[in-house]
């Protein structure tokens, strides 16, 4: 910070001997000089080193309002982007700093800045970081915004939490005695114009607190008052998003600052990135709030900490792990592997495989996986079970519009016919074991077992029993057995409700207004009562 105009030196490269009594020394092209202990103010900038700029600067921070003279930044003090940070800050514009007028003020300013950094680190320990390359004078604060009510996106989606505002601050050598610090604002959910309005308010706060520390007041104002100033606390307030396919910068925002001078800017600029950040932050905030709360189990109604609970992703209902594990285990024993359901009354949401794996014992989860695979393969028309090793085998592609019958097991290599479940017989007709089984007596069936094997004939016998005693669900085709009760059927696999007699979709009033009877003879045999006695003594209140 040496002398003013040099004697015999190049003014652009520093003076020689100072004509005032300036502090420090400056090397010049015309000589070497050393000042005394005067009050000279001057600048010396090497022309090959631009002050506080970056070659990649696309949206640098503008300088804060400051006194008249500008002091050059020391060499190597350019505020570089933080390691791993995006290029959202571009570079850092020159700060208009005022020098302290005395050595005592220099020391007092340094002590005040150190105290302010300690206070900020104590308050915003998780939200504050130093910017690499800022010489210890540049740091960022991620200021959380307090909302009194959820905000809406243009699509109608509701958000209970918003990502924090990023406030980047550069302490000048004259702060706080003679100039405020330089700053910049970045946020993904505010437009450039809204951010410029916040920046202007921060300017007003620093002007009102001239000569005093102001960064803590900036952060507190942004946290508590910024949303109110922008009218984001009003009922039904809607966030503005960048236009589809645009850069996120409206035409009106172009007039707020010229290129290279904008200190307040939306970042990121694209609509897709903004939506992604908003949803990601809202999900993280919701998960954090759930993890820190105490929950009532929807089954046993006791209170549990979140560590002892599970929240289902599909429906957001919460249950204690013990109750949910027991409920799913009972569903597995009943063969409901394809639909481990939420226990909440009337919910019907299906648990995901990761949720099932986290709760079920290893043996039960293996059963769940096996049954889930079998149910999935049963819905595939191009897959058949190998009669030799019971491994799923894929059918050959269709030929001339006809479904292929040839299946080759990838496990044991067996080629078989998917219709008759025997070894592949080419164009020869199938043995039609099912028809032969139905037409045979006990001696004939024993002969078939000896010829084709017990396993194959057991499958034929099982298929025949299903054909005679079960009906296919009209929606998913799964074989359904009716073993009592009324004729209103609910498929365990797809939850489709249908009538056992006519196969039509069940609608309220189906049995009251249609030709089908609600109860068949098997129901009356089950309760050991005639239809007349039942109607005389009971009134059916549902499933009409």
* Poorly predicted regions: 1-87, 90-100, 248-260
The whole-number mean of residue pLDDT values reads 73
Spatial strand arrangement across the major sheet: 3-4-7-8-9
Give the count of helical stretches: 15
The major sheet is characterized as: 5 strands, mixed
Q: State which percent range the strand residues make up.
A: 5-15%
Description:
The chain has 544 residues and is of the alpha+beta class. It contains 15 helices and 21 strands. A hairpin with a 6-residue loop joins strand 12 and strand 13. Helix 10 packs across helix 12 and helix 11 crosses helix 12. The longest helix is centred in the N-terminal third of the chain and has 21 residues. It is elongated and about 120 Å long. The N and C termini lie far apart (95 Å).
In brief:
The protein has 544 residues and is an alpha+beta fold. The protein is built from 15 helices and 21 strands. The termini are far apart.
């Amino acid at each position: 910070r040496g002398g003013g105009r040099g004697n015999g030196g190049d003014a652009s490269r520093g003076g020689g001997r100072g004509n005032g009594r300036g502090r420090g020394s400056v090397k010049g092209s015309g000589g070497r000089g050393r000042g005394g202990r005067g009050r000279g103010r001057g600048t010396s900038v090497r022309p090959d080193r631009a002050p506080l700029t970056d070659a990649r600067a696309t949206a640098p921070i503008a300088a804060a309002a400051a006194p008249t003279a500008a002091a050059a930044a020391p060499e190597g003090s350019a505020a570089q982007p933080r390691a791993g940070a995006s290029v959202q800050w571009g570079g850092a514009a020159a700060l208009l700093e005022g020098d302290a007028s005395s050595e005592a003020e220099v020391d007092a300013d340094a002590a005040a800045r150190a105290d302010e950094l300690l206070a900020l680190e104590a308050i915003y320990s998780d939200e504050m970081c130093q910017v690499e390359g800022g010489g210890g004078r540049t740091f960022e604060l991620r200021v959380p915004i307090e909302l009194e009510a959820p905000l809406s996106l243009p699509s109608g989606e509701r958000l209970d939490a918003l990502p924090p505002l990023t406030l980047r601050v550069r302490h000048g050598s004259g702060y706080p005695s003679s100039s405020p610090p330089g700053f910049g604002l970045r946020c993904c959910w505010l437009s450039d114009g809204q951010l410029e309005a916040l920046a202007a308010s921060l300017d007003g706060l620093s002007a009102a607190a001239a000569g005093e520390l102001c960064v803590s007041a900036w952060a507190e104002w942004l946290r508590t008052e910024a949303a109110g100033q922008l009218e984001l606390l009003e009922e039904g307030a809607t966030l503005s998003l960048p236009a589809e396919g645009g850069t996120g910068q409206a035409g009106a925002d172009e007039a707020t600052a010229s290129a290279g001078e904008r200190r307040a800017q939306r970042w990121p600029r694209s609509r897709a990135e903004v939506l992604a950040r908003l949803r990601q932050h809202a999900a993280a905030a919701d998960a954090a709030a759930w993890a820190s709360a105490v929950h009532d189990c929807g089954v046993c109604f006791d209170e549990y900490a979140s560590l002892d609970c599970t929240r289902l992703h599909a429906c957001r209902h919460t249950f204690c792990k013990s109750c949910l594990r027991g409920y799913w285990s009972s569903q597995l024993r009943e063969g409901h592997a394809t639909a481990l359901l939420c226990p909440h009354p009337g919910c019907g949401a299906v648990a995901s495989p990761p949720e099932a794996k986290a709760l079920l014992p290893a043996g039960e989860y293996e059963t769940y996986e096996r049954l889930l695979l079998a149910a999935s393969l049963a819905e595939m028309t191009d897959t058949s079970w190998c009669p030799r090793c019971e491994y799923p085998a894929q059918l050959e592609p269709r030929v001339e519009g006809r479904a292929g019958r040839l299946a080759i097991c990838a496990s044991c290599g067996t080629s078989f016919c998917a219709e008759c479940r025997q070894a592949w017989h080419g164009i020869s007709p199938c043995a039609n074991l099912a028809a032969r089984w139905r037409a045979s007596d006990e001696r004939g069936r024993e002969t078939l077992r000896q010829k084709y094997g017990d396993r194959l004939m057991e499958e034929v016998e099982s298929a025949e029993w299903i054909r005679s005693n079960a009906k296919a669900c009209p929606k998913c085709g799964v074989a359904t057995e009716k073993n009592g009760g009324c004729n209103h059927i609910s498929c365990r696999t797809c939850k489709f409700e249908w009538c056992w007699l006519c196969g039509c979709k069940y609608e309220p009033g189906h049995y009251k207004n249609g030709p089908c009877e609600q109860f068949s003879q098997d129901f009356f045999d089950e309760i050991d009562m005639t239809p007349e006695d039942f109607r005389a003594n009971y009134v059916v209140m549902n499933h009409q």
